[in-house]
Structure formats: C-alpha cells, structure tokens
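user: can you give me the structure for this one chain? tokens are fine.
assistant: on it. calling the predictor now.
[tool input]
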Amino acid sequence: MIKLFQFKLCPFSRRVRLTLEEYNISFVTIDEIIWNERKEFLAINPARSLPVLIDEADNIIINNYAIIEYIEEKYSHTTNVASLISGNLSSKAEIRRLVDWYDNKFYNEVSKIILRELIDKYYMKNRINDKSPNMELLRIAHENSIYHLEYLSHLISSRSWIAGEVISQADIAAASHISCLDYLNKIDWDKWLEIKNWYARIKSRPSFSPILEDRIAGFQPPSHYSNPDF
C-alpha cells in the first residue's frame, strides 16, 4: 500500500492527501515530526522535507509537485474520477498558474510565515532561543492575506471554481493552505462570504473529511473547523 509521510498542518501534505482521496486511492499516513530529525526518515529524504510518498513498488517520490504529477500521470486516467488537471491547453495552464500562486506566492507571503511563527517555533522550542511568535511578522502575514483573499474572492465570483467550471488542483492547493490557516483561526469568515461558500463546498466533499478530523498537540482548532457547513 502507498505510504505518505506527512505532517497534519503542512499544506503540501494536505494537498497530496486530498488528491489521493479525490482519486479514491488507498494509502496510509505516517505522521512525521521533521524537527525531530528521525534517522529513519532522513535516510529516505536527507532534505527532511514533507511530504514524501512511497508507492506500492517502494519507489520514493519526494516533493509536493513531483508527487502530484506522479499521481496525476499514474491514476487520473485509470479511475472513474475526472482528472484534477483537465481541459484544453489553456485551461491546464491556468490550473498550473494558480497552483503555483498558492504553493509559492501565497505560501511565502502568508501561510509559511504563520506556520513558522506558531507551529515551527512550538515544535522547536527546546532548540531555539526565540520561542515567542514574532507579532510583527504575523501582522505582515495578516496584511498580505487580505490581498490574497481579495484575489480569491474575485476568482470565485467569476467562475464556478477557482480555475474554471470544474474543481481542479487549483482548488485543492488553495484549500490546503486555507484549511491550515482556518485550523489556527486566522480567517475572519464573516468578511469573506464568497470564499466561505466556496470553502464550504470543499469541506463537504468526502475527500476532505479526514482533514476535518486532524488535530495536533498543543493546538485546538475553532469549533467551526470540523463543521462542513460552518
């Protein structure tokens, strides 16, 4: 069976999990606390990054993009589920553009900062001197998030889904990052009703159910986190 090394509040791990679930692919997750630098994991991936996938033939695939492309190429045409990168060349290019937007631009300007200050520092508190979250950086991340949420709201207002008329990897990527922020109660949903409606549709999908059950030590999500209808 496929093994996925992941961290529950890693947006890239979540994107792989959601993709596997959307294609109804059986897999098991192995929670990896990368800050512990476990020797067995480092032997698999010396870069100590997540996620890492080991397939049925024990092939090791490292890196979010590599894993997603592997899943798309191997499984999207062998299941009864529509591909998450579909349409003509222009449509596929738009999906990949928006995936890059969330996995790079949104991540570097918003989710990476928040996760580093709140989660990374918590798990590394016995190894670093500066254990407290940097409130100025968190303020900057919050300001950056407004611009990104405005753009997401614009996309949703003009399309059925983020990249077009069907759900795609763009939605999976965006939801993976936003769900991590939602777990930490960093989105004021009353201000973003269009996004809230889109996210409720994502949360209601069977593939998302395991995400709603995620819990990590030291952090409890807000009560609405587990409710598909908020």
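assistant: here you go. The two ends are 34 Å apart (CA to CA). The domain at 89-226 is CATH 1.20.1050.10 (Glutathione S-transferase Yfyf (Class Pi); Chain A, domain 2).
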